[in-house]
């Protein structure tokens, strides 16, 4: 359950698969952390409720989301897909502000 499968589209056969387990690289596909990429560090099972997955991104920031919101994209530090701009990292408001100011200063200079 929650494993990822790599298919050969020409033949329709399974080439490889990734198990959903601690240490796998995942992308968040829903919720407040949409688009973030990180490594699974813990899975909490809640009987009768939603299972929670704790993820750590490349900036060493931890966040939690529902199990249904994550998708396995790679094995440890190697991804099977190309990552979007920003490599799936979410900046803080202050970091976004500083980047915007640096870009504006660079354009005016």
Overview of this protein structure:
The relative contact order is 0.19. The chain has one helix at 93-108, and strands spanning 4-8, 13-18, 25-28, 37-44, 52-56, 62-66, 70-75, 78-79. It is globular. The strands form 2 sheets. Strands 6-5-4-3-7-8 form a 6-stranded antiparallel beta sheet, with no helix packed on it. Strands 1-2 form a two-stranded antiparallel sheet. The mean pLDDT is 89. The chain is mainly beta. The protein has 1 helix and 8 strands, in the order E-E-E-E-E-E-E-E-H. The longest helix has 16 residues, at 93-108.
Question: What would the keywords be for this entry?
Answer:
109 residues, 8 strands, six-stranded antiparallel β-sheet, mainly beta, 38% strand, two-stranded antiparallel ribbon
Task: Please report the number of helical segments.
Answer: 1
Strand content: 35-45%
Order of helices and strands: EEEEEEEEH
The average pLDDT value, as a whole number, equals 89
The end-to-end span amounts to 54 Å
Quaternary structure:
single chain
Largest sheet: 6 strands, antiparallel
Query: Low-confidence runs (pLDDT<50, min 5 residues)?
Result: none
Structural class: mainly beta
